[in-house]
Amino acid sequence: MTTMDEDDQPHTVDAGPGTGRYRSQVREVINRNTVVSLALAQGFNVFLPVYDGGVDFILHRETDGEIRKVQLKSRWTIDQKYRNRDLWIAFPMAGAWYLMPHEKMVALGEKEGITQTTSWRDRGAYSKPRPSRATIAACADYRFQPIEAVAAAAADAVLPP
Question: How many C-beta neighbours within 10 Å does residue 122 have?
Answer without folding.
Answer: 8
